[in-house]
Amino acid sequence: MKIAIILATVLATAFGTKLQYGFPSFQYSPFTGRVVGGKEAPAHAAPYIVSLQFLGSHFCGGSIIADKYVLTAAHCLAYPSLLVSAVAGLHNVGGTSGSQSRSVSKQTQHSKYGGDVGPYDIGIITLSKAFDFNDKIQPVALPASGVIHSGSATLYGWGSTSTTSTASMPKLLQTVTKPIIEYSACEAHLGGPGASPLADTNICTGPLTGGISACSGDSGGPLVQENGGKLEIIGVVSWGYIPCGSVDAPSVYTRVSAYIDWIKERI
């Protein structure tokens, strides 16, 4: 991972932005914000999204994939389970009527995840008690194994709205639809094979013209796409560039279809 950090510094110099592993928002604040360049989502438009909270403060997103299981980024599994809760049914992350909070009994990182920027940034949270599903709290479908996605996809999160190095954290769930960048094009844009922490198990989204991005607090949250009339979680927010929404700075996600067997073995 030392190499990844060095490469991150090189990329930061090349692009005038700072490469940051994930978009964690490990701050003691009861509020988080929105996707950069996004808009407020309709209330409960993403009934599968959860706020992962440390001592009651949001720090990462996650997605319900079964009544007792939440899919997130490995780098979000940074706190002891005893101090973490998963809250579903939120629109205002500071508190929404009808939301459900669950304590965490187990956190599972992919065994090959090495920390910092890199592949295998995926994890599963096992809840101490199942969520009670209703119209505001529902699981999201998994994609077929190995699928390579194209077109556009939609991001939901409570991440920072800021396009500077200082986070700005409003309260309400935000959303934006973003174009998927073909892997080879993303890799080439980041300097070619080996020049960045990008792996073929990632998905990149643009636009590279700037102004739209995942950001601090979005880590672990869902990138979804409709397939055959149902929404599937195709990506988990992993890493990107600070300031968020910079020109020539893609958002990078863990591609869920690369880990279907791993997920199914654990839920």
TrEMBL record:
Q: Where is the signal peptide?
A: 1-16
A Gene Ontology molecular function term for this protein is: serine-type endopeptidase activity
SMART domains to which the protein is assigned, alphabetical = Tryp_SPc
Q: Which UniProt keywords apply?
A: Disulfide bond, Hydrolase, Protease, Secreted, Serine protease, Signal, Zymogen
One of its Pfam families is Trypsin
- Record's SUPFAM superfamilies? Trypsin-like serine proteases
Its source organism is Hermetia illucens (Black soldier fly)
Major location category of this protein: secreted
- GO terms of biological process kind: protein processing
Q: Does the keyword Ribonucleoprotein apply?
A: no
Q: Does the keyword Hydrolase apply?
A: yes
Record protein name field? Peptidase S1 domain-containing protein
Q: Where is the Peptidase S1 domain?
A: 35-267
PANTHER family named among the record's database cross-references = SRCR DOMAIN-CONTAINING PROTEIN (PTHR24264:SF65), TRYPSIN-RELATED (PTHR24264)
Per the record, the domain of life is: Eukaryota
**What InterPro entries does the record tag this protein with?**
Peptidase_S1_PA, Peptidase_S1_PA_chymotrypsin, Peptidase_S1A, Serine_Proteases_S1, Trypsin_dom, TRYPSIN_HIS, TRYPSIN_SER
Recorded GO cellular component terms are:
extracellular space
Q: Can you say where in the cell this protein is located?
A: Secreted
